[in-house]
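Protocol step 6 of 9: fold each sequence in the batch and record its structure tokens directly after the sequence line. For illustration, a two-sequence batch is reproduced in full.

Sequence one:
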Amino acid sequence: MSDCLTNKLLKLFKEQISKIVKSVIDASLIFMVPLWHRRKLKKLRGRKKFKIVFFALNSSAWKFETLYRLMEKDEHFDPLILVCPITYYDRDNMIRLMDKEYDYFRSHGYSVLNSCNSGTGNWLDVKKEIAPDVIFFTHPWDMSRPQYLIRNYLDHLTCYSPYGFYVSDLHRKSYSDFFYSALWRNFLETEIHKGFYSEMSKRPSNGVVTGYPWADLITDKNYKPGNPWKKSIYNLKRIIWAPHHTIPEQGNSIDFSSFLTYSGIMISVAERLHDRIQIAFKPHPLLKKKLYTDPGWGKERTDKYYLKWALMDNGQLCEDDYSDLFLTSDAMIHDSMSFIAEYLYAGKPSLFLMNDPDIEKRLNEIGKLAVRQHYHAFNEKDISDFIEDVVLAGNDIKEDERKEFCNIYLKPPNSVTASENIFNEIRACLFNA
């Protein structure tokens, strides 16, 4: 046997042993986590005020506006947002993004800290400098520094509610990941998601159906959205174009995104109908990074393309929170996974770009139902027909169907909002510990 083959076999053997050891350790930790949570609750018994910390990575995935405000108004809670780094980026871009997100949250009236000290470059020690009682994660992925991941807080009361409405079948499989089993509470969107979670999770008892908290603002009849659209001398219909990040070769086998096909076409549509529509370019936050490394795009072309949307008279670039954008829009054109369900809350017509004609095979049960509430496009003509017939002419034949779907599947339980369900669950657990 050659030395080369021997080394390969030895490397493979070590990798397998490492996986087995990690699996055993994780199983032991999952067994211990409920005991640590009960111990934490016992320590909090009798307390009158609790510090709640939200680990935020980017404002576009911030879905806790209503929940934060509920806690802010309650004398027993002291909520705080901690801006954490996204380590996918190089250090300069990572720090720049954190500063941008810090400014966003501060300008919107939140109590917020930056996890990186701009003066010293040191990272904040959450346990020593904040000492939180409850921690909310806003992403389930290991995309931040180790001190801001769940493995560092197994003895804390940790919570999660999805940053996007889960419609992909891949998300069902992810429920078996360590992150979900380590949580104190995993707040789920619907009873259908609870079924997935019960099937796949190693610890399904921590799953609680509350509804989807981001939708609380969208469905609040008393909420008055701001106007994020550019002013125009024309009476324009407002369309959101939201391409996903799963471009070919970079989609993790999903390949939902049709951006490479329609990037030029959407510019042409905006220019051709400049006196009839305006388009908000709302790309997935990860799309830019993937275009930077795409052989046909790269950083220069990508930056120029994003800038073109930002400067167009009837176009704009939207990279932050999109609640008001949804509420003040007339329609959406997209291939985003989460928006398959999220935009239905807004009650407006939407066109799904069918980059994959077999998309339903990639969706879970509620995703299959939700995508059928959209109009579908397979080519440029379908996009033009949707804009002319549905958006401009108002022939929205799916309106009643969408309303029925929302009433059956998307309403939160207990005749209250999703945020109220989460708030009530946490409050009951802390005061009845």
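Sequence two, same batch, same settings:
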Amino acid sequence: MVLVLEFRKDIDGLRGIAVLSVILFHSGIGFASGGYIGVDVFFVISGFLITSSILSSIKNRKFSLLRFYERRVTRIFPATITVIIVTGLIGLNTLFPEELKELIESIYSFLKIQSNSWAAGSISYFGISTEFKPLIHLWSLSIELQFYIILPLILGPLLIQDKKNTALIVCGTLLLSSFIYASIQVIEHPDQAYFSSLMRAWQFLIGVLLSLTICRFDVSKIPLNTKNILVATGISMIFISVFIFDQRSNFPGINALLPCIGAVLILAFGDDRSFSGKCLSFIPLRFIGIISFSLYLVHQPIFAFYRILQGRELESIEPAALILISFILSVIIYFLIEQPFQSKNKLFKSWARSYVVILFILVLFSSYRGLNEDLSKFNITNEVYEFLKFRYDNNPRVEECRISNRVIVPSQACLYGDVKLPKVAVWGDSHADQLIEPLQKEFSKYGYSTLEFSVAGCPPIINSKSSSGLRLCSENSKSILEYLINNHEIKHVFLHAYWIGYIDNNLIQPNTITDSNANNSDILRLSFNFVINKLIESGKRVHLIYPVPKMKVNPPLYLAREKLINPSSSPSIVGLTQEEFENQSKKSFDFLNGSIEGLNVNQIFISDYLFDQKSLQYIAVDGDSVLYRDDNHLSVTGATSVAKTIASKAFGSL
């Protein structure tokens, strides 16, 4: 038992590695693509230390459920509530209604200890990117709090009665159940699985089982060289995880075993005398571990608000600068808030409890009130609205006509125009949906009506699935293709989608892989080639609309926020150079060209119609009109500006 209670410098170092991994990942630095595994490591550490604390209290006959909860509250809430308050105040002065509402929701959900459920529910195809959500990272803290509430209720009674074997069986059964469930769900519902307490429980329970079993063995008898190798292996497993995993890797399933077992090896065999132990006990790394909680709290709001104000991802030295700022602020919070609240002075502890309770109630009341307030006009002046309105410049029939999480009934597809006219079909995703209404106005001049087959998050490719697993892409594509092939009234089919996202950014993958040597792009290209071939064989003229340039910023939000912060400013030029567009779309152009090789397909390069010869850029703003709804979707205004040329390219000049 003594070993369990002994102060471990190397655990501070392990915390330092974990928090650095998370921060590097959130900064967007490419080599740390799997840095999110730092959270998994934290969960294992928490399970180990909290169980060790309970064992120690019971051994010394000092275990109290109330005291346990009090220590957790004074450890977590002072710094967290402070960061939440500052984040909320900044949000009031920089965010628009939709963003502010979401920030308030994130605050309220944390106070209910449900941030993880909110995070899972807030991910949507048209939602705000997680990198732009200041408090999205509190999801992991909510799971920790849920664990802290439940664990002592399970372990306490068993350990007090000295039923350690029963505790091992119970925790082992729960661990196995959680792991199996997680391994299944990460494939079927990856986003929901990632934020789920049930599917994260096994990571805590690994630490719990380690703490319950390590006291039964005399680890000190293991040779120092052996422990050194085991700890070095654990460190290597964590670093390998940071480098080999990315956002497409399924977590927290089987993949998560690598960093979690790595953490277990360090916790079980760590020894400050070994070389590996000395590396983990390196003073700068230990200090990062000591301030890791404050550092974790502050980094995401800093990154998110900077991204919000700039309207784009981080570039150049910005990640390094923001990491430095995060360190400075976390040191301040640690010494001014976090550490003082750990004081054992009874008078101060009483004051601290009152402080936490009062702030908690104030923030809870404010967030609840904010959720029930009409914020639709908040921070919206006339000047701001002139730009922001394009954020909502959507197809008026989008809710009726664009499919999201269900399988389309093709015979009930939305018809635009006169039902008596010959029909053309537009098949794609939300990018196609944005084009529909302007295209129909032009198509009608050629004597056509238009059928819409748009499925959010799904390109017109069979046997494909979205990387998030949220869309029914394969089912919809098969249904639409079959309908188009058998409908001889339709003579023209237009194919358009977010090609840059799907191909260049890997937002889709094959539904099944039959050739282990083939890469995803080749499999998808063959599937798309099959679709086009089938359409041509059925007598259709296929028109392939190439990618829309993806802007570095969200034009309506960027220009509107520019007006909000500096009302006297002139609108910035928002555009993309030819070189930037070529770099971002190379894979998708190669993919599309390869898919139609040898086929008679009408290629329509929509980007050509957005190119401004004067500025030599692909433009997002034309006079008073914003041509984009966000960074990659055209607004209906933007679609109108290119629709006439698309129709002319398809049917000839009138």
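Proceed to step 7 once all outputs are recorded. Observation for sequence two: The chain has a mean pLDDT of 90.
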